[in-house]
Amino acid sequence: MSARTQCEERGVIQRECAAIRAQFRQADNGGRSHNLAKLLYVHMLGYPAHFGQMECVRMIASPRYSEKRVGYLGAMMLLDEKQDASLLITNSIKNDLSNSNQYIQSLALCTLACMGSAEMCRDLAPEIDRLLRASNSYIKKKAALCAVHIVRKVHDLGELFTKAARSLLTEKNHGVVHGAVVLITELCERNSETLERFRKTVPDLVQIMKGLVISGYSPDHDVAGISDPFLQVRILRLLRILGRNNEGASDAMNDLLAQVATNTDSTKTVGNAVLYETVLTVLDIKSESGLRVLAVNILGRFLLNNDRNIRYIAMTSLQKIVGTDHNAVQRHRGTIVDCLKDQDASVKRRALDLSLALVSASNIRSMMKELLSFLSSCPPELRSQTASGIFNAAERYAPSQRWHIDTILHVLTTAGGDVRDETVPNLIQLITNTSELHCYTVHKLYRALLSDISQQPLVQVACWCIGEYGDLLLRGECQETEPVQVTEDDVLDVLETVLQSHMSFPSTRGFALTATMKLSTRITENVDRIRSIVSIYGSCIDVELQQRAVEYNALFKKYDHMRAAVLERMPVIEKNSQGHINGETIKESQTVKVKPGEPQHLLFKRLMHSPWLNTDLKLMQPSTLSVFSVVATVTVYEKDGVTVTLSCEKQSDSGLTVTLTASNSTESDIRGFTLQAAVPKSVQLHMKAPSGDSLPARGAAKVTQMVVLNNPNKVQLAYLQLVSEVFDLSPIFYSFGSQNI
Amino acid sequence: MQFMLLFSRQGKLRLQKWYVPLSDKEKKKITRELVQTVLARKPKMCSFLEWRDLKIVYKRYASLYFCCAIEDQDNELITLEIIHRYVELLDKYFGSVCELDIIFNFEKAYFILDEFLLGGEAQETSKKNVLKAIEQADLLQEVRYTPNHSHVWQI
Predict the structure, then answer these.
(1) Any idea what DSSP says for residue A568?
(2) How far apart are alpha carbons A297 and A278 in whole angstroms?
(3) Cβ pair A273:B80 closer than 8 A
(4) Would you tell me how many other CB atoms lie within 10 Å of the CB of residue B36?
């Protein structure tokens, strides 16, 4: 095959295949096996060879061993159980299974075990059983593995082989015993009754193991001083299955396991393979605590092994028991953490999983140092997992709030692009609730923004903070950290840089604009600059930004008297889990749970400022900023067939009755429709019971609810925020007194 | 074991033994992707990796990669020993085996594998016994067939 290019090669192959095809068509000649072999080679190169299938079938039926041999090889390579032609060889296999020559029997057994379909297996199972009982060792060992394949294909046939499998255990030949152990393992895994029956073999298995471990050197089966490690490993695995959840069986094997664990030479891989299997067994059965400790210590030694493979499997095993044997694994924490620095990505991943599982209240500070250091240099595919792990650990074990905030900020600075969406609102909530650190936090975030505005989550939180606590920056004093000396312009510059940067996501720019707006009530001199920023963005191409700007503009112009109240400092937020389930776009699903007893004015603020709305201070459409006079009826919601209207009637100089009417024109009833309302602190509100709590379909009936408002202090402006668990209702603003806007 | 692949540093397949039923197309896809993944690994890295939902054990001997896909409960370290045993068998049979031996006598490589593993499991744990069986089978192959006899000489 000296073709130099792919194209040349294809040409050569084509010619060869044509020749082979021709040969196949000819009568029997001495070169058939040679040609089939050539075809199989061609097949391995990746070229189609299905025209050779029938030739395989023919060859298998040949009386010549050389032809049978290649024929069967061809069958294993070209005919899998999905091919129809595979059935054609069933008969040949059947005949060959009873051939007087064991090498021919062997070919049949090998092929059946490799590609036998369920149908073929059912057909030939009795033959295999016969061979399991009455043949020489050479055939018995193969028949046993053939039986394994049959059981995997047709589970019910397991019953057939149970008895034979049992008696094979008593044979001397290692190959046969090995096959028997594999077969018994398969039978026990498939059927719990069979497993019960085979538990009786535990003493026999223990004996066999003892023979291997203790008795002298056996040249035929020795591998670096270990006597038949392959058999040892299979027996240990079977013992694991038999000892699981069974005291008696576990007791019977306890001593043996201790012996193997102690005496097996661990300087070479082969010894470690046996030790590894032993450890797995000890940890899975009902072993004595002393034995368990021994097993975990072996894993600990594995962690220190120079061979990376050994370290890797040690960690895989430790991961399995970190829940049940936590303290034992903790003892090896140092070594595990060191593995974070390993060159191999698979080892790193294992070390990460384990390290995160080992974080506790007592080691949080030192562990976090390691994890943060890991985060800055870990492979990209592990960053997201590491960041989440760090956040979870921080939330559970943070020794102080300042540490918690610092840790989250560190992660956002290092791996901002790999954190989940809810990190931003979670962090905002944490910051808001840590009132003693507002000054510290806003300083830290301001400094972060000065150096880098590319990490979006960090920038978003920073903008939000500056918007909220910008006044603390301007004050020029801070207890927890070095204060900054900035002017109002400096702060506005930073926000404008974010607004204008091409690196900023649209959502980030939203944060920046809102923050700028909020500063209008926290600064004193530069309000005009803010006014002009807001007005410029009123014609921004981004619709979202434009809408905000227009609303903020309106807040400046028509509703300037409201501005201070609306942009006031946020109250403490309770985490609202409903705001972002199912990854829904938060703008759409603004369902907000009303907490019982929540002061009404706070409810309003929460709704307005909620970061989960992802739009921070998303004011209602300017058109819904409707203020109405006494007799007006306003439609406050109209969507998807549901309409809610509001009308009011002035009762007195300070009193107002509002009537809400809801109707539903869809085809199905809407249940659980309740309305709640929020008003400013000084306004008294009394909600009467609604006429019903479900809206019948097709407008069959309306539901009304009365709300009585009393404004004794004659507050200039009253607003009524309607909240429904189901719908997004806009607030209504009502102006008491003579000043009708 | 689900399958074993032998391939060169250039990604050329030298042997493929499948113990699970998959279509030709699937086999090709798996082979291509796995070969790529393994070849991309650096020399000192772990011999084990998780690929799709399989455990992969591989080891490089001279210019050939020996790569096995094993089940969840299978012991990775003993699989390395199985690979090593197979290499030893090839070595003993060919006398200091090299990649060319496997290219030009690929069917022999399969015969040896089939005498060592059956249905994905080890069938004979003694090196000597495997080699003896191959030797005998080879001899059988040499026996001439005479048209008047209906069966081959037994040895």
Answers:
(1) P
(2) 12
(3) yes
(4) 10
Please state, in angstroms and rounded to a whole number, the distance separating the CA atoms of residues B113 and A33: 19
Q: A537 pLDDT exceeds 50?
A: yes
All residues of chain A having their beta carbon less than 8 Å from the beta carbon of residue B152 are 63-65, 101, 104
B139 touches chain A (CB under 8 A): no
3-class DSSP state for residue A657? strand
Considering the segment(s) A633-726 as one domain, its CATH architecture is Sandwich (2.60)
Q: What are phi and psi of B105, to 5 degrees?
A: -130, 45
- Domain residue ranges of chain B, discontinuous segments joined by +: 3-145
Q: Quick one: pLDDT at residue A604?
A: 40
Asked whether this complex has an ipTM greater than 0.90, the answer is yes
Q: What is the pLDDT of residue A27?
A: 62
Q: Retrieve residue A163's tokens.
A: 């008895």
Please tell me the distance from the alpha carbon of residue B19 to that of residue A81, in angstroms, as a whole number.
11
From the list A103, A231, A280, the residue facing B137 with the nearest CB is A103
- Residue range A296-321: average pLDDT? 93
pLDDT of residue A602: 40
**Contact A175/B126, CB-based, under 8 Å?**
yes
Query: For residue B152, what pLDDT band results from cuts at 50, 70 and 90?
Result: very low
Tracing tokens 């009786």 back to the chain, one arrives at A200
Locate A723 and state its tokens: 């909240």
| pLDDT tens, position by position, A170-179 | 999 999 999 9
Distance from CA of A95 to the nearest CA of B (A): 13
A692-729: pLDDT as tens digits: 878 888 878 888 888 887 877 765 555 666 666 555 55
Residue located via tokens 């990796």 = B49
Please list every residue in chain A whose beta carbon sits closer than 8 Å to the beta carbon of residue B125: 174-175, 178, 221, 228, 230-231
- Please answer whether residues A634 and A645 qualify as being in contact, where contact means their C-beta atoms are separated by less than 8 angstroms: yes
Nearest-CB residue to B150 (from A63, A117, A233): A63
Answer whether residue A364 shows pLDDT above 70: yes
CA Rg value for chain B: 17
| Cα separation, B116 vs A439, whole angstroms | 73
Q: What tokens were used for A201?
A: 């073999």
- Residue A90, min C-alpha distance to chain B (Å): 17
Using the Cβ of B62 and the Cβ atoms of chain A, whether some distance falls under 8 Å is answered with no
DSSP A320-361: HHTTTTHHHHHTTHHHHHHGGG-S-HHHHHHHHHHHHHH--T
Shortest distance, CA A226 to any CA of chain B (angstroms): 12
The residue type of A278 is T
Looking up tokens 């992969």 gives: B56
- What kind of architecture, by CATH, is found in domain B3-145? 2-Layer Sandwich (3.30)
Burial A479-508 (b: 16+ CB within 10 A, else e): eeeebbebebeebbebbbebbeeeebeebb
List pLDDT tens digits, range A46-88. 888 888 888 889 899 998 899 999 999 999 998 877 777 778 8
Q: DSSP assignment of A477-541, as one string?
A: --SSSPPP---HHHHHHHHHHHHH-TTS-HHHHHHHHHHHHHHTTT-SS-HHHHHHHHHHGGG-S
Sign of CA dihedral A369, A371, A372, A378: positive
How far is the alpha carbon of B61 from chain A, nearest alpha carbon, in Å? 16
Angle formed by the axes of helices A364-377 and A380-397, to 10°? 160
Residue ranges of domains in chain A: 435-567, 633-726
Contact A514, A548 (CB under 8 A): yes
What digits encode the pLDDT tens for the residues B54-97? 999 999 999 999 999 999 999 999 999 999 999 999 999 999 99
3-state helix, strand, coil in chain B (%, to 5): 45, 25, 35
Of A138, A313, A344, the CB nearest to B76: A313
The answer on pLDDT for A257 being more than 90 is: yes
